[in-house]
Amino acid sequence: MLPFPSSSSMTPSSYSARFCFNRECPDFNRECYRPGWRLRNGDFADLCNRCASAYEQGRFCDIFHQRASGWRCCESCGKRIHCGCIVSAPAFMLVDAGGIECLTCARKKVSVGPNFRPPPPSFLFQSPISEKFQDLSIDWNSSTRSYRPPNLSGPSIRQSDLHNRGDCYEFNQPTSKDKATAYSTEKHRGMNDLMGKLMSVNSNNHTNSILYNQKAGPNCKVPTCQNVNAAYPPLISLKEGPLVGAQRAFPVTTPVETNGHLGLGGRYLWHKANSSPLSHLHNDLNNGADSPLESKNWNFGIHLDTPGKYQVVPRYSPKVPYKNQVLQNLPNESVSVVTPLFEKILSVSDAGRVGRMVLPKKCAEAFLPQISQTDGVPLTVHDSTGKEWTFQFRFWVNNNSRMYFLEGITPCIQSMQLQAGDTGMSLVFLCHCLVLGPYAWELKSIHFFFLVIFSRVDPEKKLIMGFRKASVAQSSVQETELNNNRESCTNGDQAEPIDIHPPNGKKKSSMTTTRSKRQKVEKGELSALKLTWEEAQGFILPSPNLTPSIITIEGIEFEEYEVHPYDYFSTNLHLCFGSTCSANKGLLAEQDDEEAKDEAEGLLMSPKSTSKHPRHRNGCTCIVCLQSPSGSSPKHGRRCSCTVCDTVRRRRETLLQRKKKQQQSEIENKAHKEMESPNSDEERHQSVNNSGTTSKDYERHASPPSKAQIDLNFQPEKDEESPLPRSKTTTKDKSLHHDEARSSSSAHNKLHVDFADS
DNA sequence: ATACCGCATGGAC
DNA sequence: AGTCCATGCGGTA
């Protein structure tokens, strides 16, 4: 087959050079001039008139795939549907209990669903961008179980653009894909340019600017994807083996699960999610995520339709209970959906000076842009103050796998005063699907928050969020910080600041309302729950019914609640809707109540258990574990007798003794060697190197520790048993030593313990 | 001396 | 046993 330019970029004359994409087409060499389904490279299959007609009428598979495998019957009407190829992918939906349903049946169920509530028409297409895309609507043809692409003129977006990459594995590429993908590249660039222009229309919008920056901005490093699977191989699926065709051809359109049912936005049918946590998220992500730009670059479709196989480890699943929660703004009835993607407790190295944060692999591959180069792509995120950060999302090849991480997070970490043990970086996907219907992706954005508890977009695109620190209760310092943030978050054109607490004056009534809504939640009246963002913030706060016990740690008073926040959320705010409520409830309850409980208990109990690293276990008395979280630690005076300072003093005394012994030993050794050989220095180094200890190790161990390298974990009874220099082969010991030495060094610096006069 | 980079290592699961 | 990931650590700027 000859190369063919994409349908959107081709000129009338270019049509004559292309041929029908359908391999089964009896008139293979017939000129083609109508677009068909979307290919993996982003282009559209060019079909001859006859094949295109068959495709548009939903008869393509009936005609050409009769003998192919993958035919199944609609669970409701029994109609045969081909589930084994991409052509018919939009024609059916997966059923929770297994099997498929044709669109007609699926739509019927949606329209009569107990929680079905079409979005207010006035909010469809309300954005300037949306208006530009009104001619790009999809004409679902239920009678033929297919969708009819709109008549396109010039660059445009079609339904198949909304497919993620996961639904395209089944399709065979033409043999001339290299040249074809070259066209695709141009098309993709063109699309990016188009999107960039469109986005810039609303460039004062955070969300849009994020998208623009990420995908089409001048600094965008996203490699142009010529072939989705070639440039971004299915990282997970390669290991997991083939999937059933029906699952591969996941008919994602603009899926959303807001209330456990198929959502219907305007004329648009959104795909039902299955009940796996990841797919749960996945479907939310696809809720507007499948723009032409993002569909190739974002990992929103990695076989998430295989329950149990690709679930994010519970440890990383968001503990925020507001999964898929629909927030409604009472005054204007706009709706937003908040979907936390994952969260991670910052490790020591994450919060350290390296400025890198390791990302859970599956989370990265599921939720972040696909990257094929180790350089990765820039990722623009917003923090709780609305401040924009750009990290580099990269990976290393590690043990035949990949290790994903964010680079350049130091300023953000420092800005947030985060440290090991804090819950960090929940990704929240703000989707405006119910507001903007099928064009939700226009306002799609990915936000990093240190813990996004709530987020909302009203017509002014304002955000609400909170974050969780290692110590659940906020110290006065943090409280002040939040207040400061609140003030600094007032945007010029935004009437209200981003607020963690209800504004003054409204607090009482707001909290009262919130309390009543809490009760509503408790009663299970979830589907009707509408929250203003202030009320939403109320849920973030501890329940007014709870009386904290005040504990004092290092002079700082903390509020400690008997019921930890996850109890709160998991019991009160499982916003499960509709028929899948029980399943979801069970799932979420299990997650939140068990996992979150374990984790939160660790967080609540003590900073000691905030580090995941095995070297800092409960009961560890190293300086890292002893010290209080940054920001909550008071300044330590010279005569401070707190545990931390006592430890530091004790360690220091030990070190001084050790230093004396070392110096004495060195002098003796030197004298001894000088007696044996005049070239003592060279030979000593040689000897050290031969023994497997590098010169660096030698320096590290042989030289007396400087103040900055003070080993606060030095244990004389152990260390003196193995006099330096240590062999490099004692990896474990060395690792421990360096680890704690490094940590304690930074801890030492952080604590500002001044022993200069001692 | 320090920061950065990227691969290596090893404990946990 | 394989994978993940926190951290080590050597090389380089």
From TrEMBL:
The record's InterPro entries line, in alphabetical order, gives: B3_DNA-bd (IPR003340), DNA-bd_pseudobarrel_sf (IPR015300), Zfn_VAL1-3_N (IPR057743)
State the source organism's domain of life: Eukaryota
Q: Does the keyword Nuclease apply?
A: no
Composition skew (Polar residues), residue ranges: 478-493
Keyword annotations for this protein, in alphabetical order, are: DNA-binding, Nucleus, Transcription, Transcription regulation
Ranges of residues in domain TF-B3:
342-457
List the protein's name.
Answer: TF-B3 domain-containing protein
Q: What is the lineage of its organism?
A: Eukaryota, Viridiplantae, Streptophyta, Embryophyta, Tracheophyta
